[in-house]
Amino acid sequence: MSQAAHQPWIKANAEVSRPWRDALVALLTILVWILFLYRETGVAMVTIWVQSETFNHNFLVLPIVLWLVWRRRLTIATRVPQPTPFVVAVVAATCFVWLLGEMAAVNALTQLAFVSLLVLCVPAVLGGAVARLIVFPLGFLFFAVPIGEFLLSPFMDWTANFTVFALRLSGIPVYREGLQFVIPSGNWSVIEACSGVRYLMASLTVGTLFAYLNYQSSLRRILFVMVSIVVPIFANWVRAYMIVMLGHLSGNKLAAGVDHLIYGWVFFGVVIALMFAIGARWAEPEPQPTAPPAGAIGVAAVVPASAIRLWATTASLALVLALPPVVVWLSARDEVFEPVRLTAPVQLASGWNLAGSGLPEFKPAFQNPSAEIHTSYANEGRVVGLYLGYYQQQNYGRKLVSSTNVLVGSKDPNWAPASSGRRRIQIGNREIALRTTELRGTAGQQQAKDTRLLAWQIYWVNGVLTSSDYAAKAHLALNNLVGRGDASAVLIVYTPQDEAAESDAVLASFLTTNYETINELLMKKP
Questions:
Q1: Which of 1, 22, 361, 482 has the most C-beta neighbours closer than 10 Å?
Q2: Start-to-end C-alpha separation, the chain
Q3: pLDDT tens digits, one per residue of 207-253
Q4: Do 247 and 113 fall within a single domain?
Q5: What does each C-alpha distance from 413 to 162, 181, 395, 441, 499 come to in angstroms?
Q6: 121 near 34, Cβ under 8 Å?
Q7: Torsional sign, CA 192, 197, 198, 199
């Protein structure tokens, strides 16, 4: 293109430079405002990136997003920023979602809303035409949200299922209970690191980027993203089987300890490299960017948005964004909590009396409760353990429902879940659902070895009973919004597992006859 041909393009750029300068200043102002107002949410995200190996790669997301935007800079420069005021309504709805997540202390919800606010600022300030040019980089920013821990439990089950199936197919006898299984050469268990979630998250992130950069058709991109989901899941199953086989064939000299994880990452790296190598065979070259027709820029440049519209939209965004943090601050300022004290009653209904012992040593792994009761009650030779973990003034360090609050931790040396399920019982005129878990004592605690416990678990949220994590979070958010507070608790009862029907009957009898007393205890103001 000759210099004469460039003149209209240069002139057009000069005409739009002022709107772009103003728009970029407004965008940067709003982004800084979001980072300031929602800094705790941002810090929580980064903390998870640091602490969880599953999300270490999230540190790369922001630099990748900035690089992807920079690649489109010449095309973006052909557009004139046009603020879109109606996006402010979408921002307001997203702020409300963040507020709900904050009220219920749900990390995933607040962090998704936080990233959504950052993304929505682009169409709000720069306009839809600009946002469409960088829709992939904006969408890729959501990979910064450390979400996916809810997949741990099903992925561990699937890995155990495949490993046991493959071992039996190989002619090796296997005895399995829950996530633990025994083969002639030793004992194995599927733990969180074996779930494959971290492989999936890394593969999905890199695979999505690979598909965007190497393919132009939407079909090929979607197919490769699907492959980047399926391959790491299946590869993790094969990896788990191979590690057990290596240990079995080597007399447990190989694939034990640290090299267990090393072999896993090496195998995963080889599989992903092969996936990318094969995918590259169908790569579609990206069209070379060309300078736009001069007339196109000239037409766009004659209708820049007014400064009044730009800064009115920016001021509206700033006001809407500030409301949720202000609501949270005001509600926290007005709340006055006294220290919580819970005392186990000496006697419950129908002859259930406080018992000093009679059960193997066991305590549910619920962290940082405001108050708790952990004791046991006996009645005519039947002993039931009772755990109440009471939570109040909840935050991200102390909350009822979280991935770290479980009946038995994955690294518990004394107990392991052998099976789990659901059961419905009648309490008064209400039928409620509970979680049921059979616990097996392990060699870590000699007195509990070969001992089994049957445990029932349910959440209590200001008098409402539910066994669902999601329902409990929803009730907490609603109670906070209407000013009822966030008083909640986990209720766990357990007893030795002998005959299944008898243990069920003992726990059912204890709950049905004593729940009203327990409810009154929790409802009392501390």
A1: 22
A2: 79
A3: 999 999 999 888 999 999 999 999 989 888 888 888 888 888 877 66
A4: no
A5: 25, 16, 29, 9, 25
A6: yes
A7: positive
